[in-house]
Design brief:
Elements: E1 6-15, E2 18-23, E3 26-31, H1 34-44, E4 50-51, H2 52-58, H3 75-82, H4 87-95, H5 102-125, H6 130-139, E5 140-141, E6 145-148, E7 155-160
Parallel strand pairs: 1-7
Antiparallel strand pairs: 1-2, 2-3, 4-6, 5-6
Length: about 160
Amino acid sequence: MIVQQQKITAGMRRTGDSWLLFWDGRATVFDTLRGFWYLSVLIRHPDQQIPAAVLLASAKGAPIVPDSRETVLDAEGIRRLRKEDDPAVQKYLARHAFGGRARSDQTRVRVMVRQALTYALDTVATTQLAAMAEHFEQTILYGNHVAYHPCHDTQDVIWKL
């Protein structure tokens, strides 16, 4: 027996200082949260493992290159930057709390991204869009890389971004 997936229209749009999220005919406006930016990136790159450092950097305006091993905030990039004598580079590292070991930096980035996503989803879960939060809880995989795998849900979501 073949089970047909339910089709749902959903979307996210940034409008000035807020985000408009909609799911299956319902919409809610939220204050800007970094986790919403991360969700929008993940939706645009389904089934791709994106390094947590790339998600973090994307919120600061860096381009999204999901399979890139060259990101300023990955462990190797941090090691290379620490060797620079440029005071501006050292100030950047200090300002973004990348003063510890590479492994702890990677852990810090991973935790920051997960906390931002969790907070955003917890916020959505308290509204009429709780089904959207549940969808993301079933389809986002966390770790040093973060991925949105929509095939892990029984619903067929058509995203409008």
